[in-house]
């Protein structure tokens, strides 16, 4: 694997990002490079089609079941979803596969028309699928293929994917370091420039906003994830738990402002990436410090609001029969 960079939290290594574009996920597993695969739910002449037999054998399921789930995600679901298939062998070192909605899914066009851009789609799906690979499957070495249409992978998709991975590591540091590896077809080395930008910006900024995901359990080893498009603070009390309308309105405004500020900061860092790499730049560093202070202030305000919400919830629980 070609290593693009590492990520550290408080000085400790928590993850790394790399690629092997000449290797399929099947070969990567055989070479002990991945223990979980995130693939577009696109059967046929595709990464999933080429590895379907191997995946079914590794998961200890019928190959037709894998095809059935892939077709449901791609052709039937009206909203972007992912299906998690955990390996059923108790001693298997392969954790499982996540079949994700992609740009070839029925739900993608509807999402893009109704809710946002392709960037928003990829950010939501990357956050949700990577989070479940790390937390629910316990994966440490994730292989990911393109979630775009065949031959249409783009640099910003790699950037968004790595941003999601690094943000999750920062918010929920794992006990052991993990790795994200791009592999399979339709991804080229030039696309990795986006991933390098994300790794460079990670030194200065991390988001704590992730899509909430409703989980639907089908059976012990199969569940469906329904990501929502709205950002939330995963580590705090969900806003729906508070009955105080004024609190909800304030929370919504903070979410909107802080999300906008985060995007401004990311854009600023990307535009001044070369200046930062060239050496000390007082004006740029002062601007970064100012933006960081602003983000910390918003985080402090949100924590204070959620502290009030927790107190309110405890009070209301004491009054229940």
Q: What does the model show?
A:
This protein has 321 residues and is an alpha/beta fold. The protein has two domains: 2-230, 3-Layer(aba) Sandwich (Leucine Aminopeptidase, subunit E, domain 1); 236-318. The protein is built from ten helices and nine strands. The protein has helices at 25-30, 47-59, 63-76, 106-114, 118-135, 155-171, 192-201, 245-271, 273-278, 282-318, and strands at 2-9, 12-20, 36-40, 82-86, 96-100, 141-144, 178-183, 209-219, 222-233. The chain has a nine-stranded mixed β-sheet with strand order 1-2-7-6-3-5-4-9-8, with helices on both faces. Helix 5 (118-135) packs across helix 6 (155-171). The longest helix has 37 residues, at 282-318. The protein is globular and about 60 Å long. It starts with a strand and ends with a helix. 39% of the residues are buried.
Features:
alpha/beta, Leucine Aminopeptidase, subunit E, domain 1, 2 domains, 49% helix, 9-stranded mixed sheet, 321 residues, 9 strands, globular, disordered C terminus
Going by CATH, the architecture of the largest domain would be: 3-Layer(aba) Sandwich
Q: Mean of the pLDDT scores?
A: 76
* CATH fold assignment of the largest domain: Leucine Aminopeptidase, subunit E, domain 1
- Structural class comes to alpha/beta
| Percent in helix | 40-55%
Strand content: 15-25%
Annotation field: number of helices: 10
Distance between the termini: 59 Å
Total beta-strand segments: 9
- Shape descriptor reads globular
Order of helices and strands: EEHEHHEEHHEHEHEEHHH
Kindly report the spatial arrangement of strands forming the biggest sheet: 1-2-7-6-3-5-4-9-8
Q: Biggest β-sheet, characterized?
A: 9 strands, mixed
Task: List the domain count as a whole number.
Answer: 2
CATH superfamily of the largest domain: Leucine Aminopeptidase, subunit E, domain 1
Q: Regions with pLDDT < 50 over 5+ consecutive residues?
A: 230-248, 313-321
Any idea of the CATH class of the largest domain? Alpha Beta
Rg, Cα atoms, Å:
20 Å
């Amino acid at each position: 694997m070609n290593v693009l960079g590492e990520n550290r939290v408080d000085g400790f290594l928590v993850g790394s990002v790399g690629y092997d574009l000449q290797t399929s996920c099947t070969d990567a597993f055989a070479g002990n490079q991945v223990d979980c695969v995130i693939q577009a739910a696109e059967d046929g002449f595709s990464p999933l089609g080429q590895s379907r037999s191997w995946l079914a054998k590794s998961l200890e399921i019928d190959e037709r079941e894998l095809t059935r789930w892939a077709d449901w995600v791609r052709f039937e679901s009206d909203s972007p979803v992912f299906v998690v298939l955990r390996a059923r062998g108790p001693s298997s070192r392969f954790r499982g596969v996540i079949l994700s909605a992609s740009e070839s899914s029925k739900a993608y066009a509807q999402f893009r028309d109704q809710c946002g851009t392709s960037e928003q789609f990829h950010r939501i799906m990357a956050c949700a699928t990577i989070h479940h690979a790390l937390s629910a499957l316990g994966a440490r070495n994730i292989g990911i293929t393109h979630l775009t249409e065949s031959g249409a992978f783009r640099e910003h998709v790699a950037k968004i994917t790595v941003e999601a991975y690094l943000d999750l590591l920062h918010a929920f540091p794992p006990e052991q370091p993990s790795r994200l590896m791009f592999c399979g077809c339709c991804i080229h080395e030039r696309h990795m420039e986006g991933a390098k930008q994300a790794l460079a910006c990670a030194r200065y900024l991390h988001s704590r906003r992730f899509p909430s995901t409703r989980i639907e359990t089908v059976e012990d080893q199969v569940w469906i994830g329904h990501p929502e498009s709205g950002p939330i603070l995963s580590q705090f009390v969900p806003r729906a738990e508070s009955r105080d309308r004024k609190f909800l309105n304030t929370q919504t405004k903070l979410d909107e402002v802080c999300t906008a500020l985060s995007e401004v900061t990311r854009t600023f860092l990307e535009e001044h990436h070369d200046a930062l790499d060239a050496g000390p730049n007082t004006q740029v560093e002062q601007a970064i410090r100012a933006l960081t202070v602003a983000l910390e202030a918003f985080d402090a305000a949100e924590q204070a609001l959620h502290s009030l919400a927790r107190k309110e919830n405890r009070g209301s629980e004491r009054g229940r029969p």
